[in-house]
Amino acid sequence: MNKNGVRKITVKIRYFGKLRELLGVKDETYIVKKGATVADLLLDHVPNRHSNVSKDWKETLFRTLKGEHLQEKNGTPVLKNYLVIVNGKSAQLKDCLKEGDDMAVMPPFGGG
């Protein structure tokens, strides 16, 4: 809990492929408000830390139309073909993060 009485948690995020190249880092640790979602981390915290590439980050990770994020009926943004893993399991953008979560953002995989 910080001095304002807001509970905080620590979350690690690992980047792969184009996202790693874009940000110039392999992984980072974020301290976020308890109750923060996967979407909060990806749409707010990462772009705020990497403001020099925030527009590219959002356009690479999320589906957009005329510069606006496409959203599900519940208001959650739509990922492109990226896969978000939290603690080894597939995660949804609306999922709440917990203390010590280990998150990875995986690029689309080709096959054939």
Describe this structure in words.
The structure is a single chain. The protein has 112 residues and is an alpha+beta fold. The protein has a single domain, classed as Ubiquitin-like (UB roll) (Roll). It contains 3 helices and 7 strands. A 5-stranded mixed beta sheet has the order 2-1-7-5-6. A two-stranded antiparallel ribbon has the order 3-4. Helix 1 runs antiparallel to helix 3 and helix 2 runs antiparallel to helix 3. The longest helix is centred in the middle third of the chain and has 12 residues. The radius of gyration is 14 Å and the shape is globular. The model has no long low-confidence stretch (mean pLDDT 90).
- Total tally of structural domains: 1
Residues in β-strands, percent:
25-35%
What is the makeup of the main sheet?
5 strands, mixed
CATH-defined fold name: Ubiquitin-like (UB roll)
Question: If helices are DSSP runs of H or I spanning 4 or more residues, what is the number of helices?
Answer: 3
Low-confidence stretches: none
**CATH architecture field:** Roll
The mean pLDDT is 90
CATH class: Alpha Beta
The Rg value, from CA coordinates, equals: 14 Å
In the CATH hierarchy, what is the superfamily? Beta-grasp domain
Oligomer: single chain
> How many E-type strands?
7
**Tertiary shape:** globular
Q: From the helix content, strand content and strand pairing, which structural class follows?
A: alpha+beta
Estimated helix fraction: 10-25%
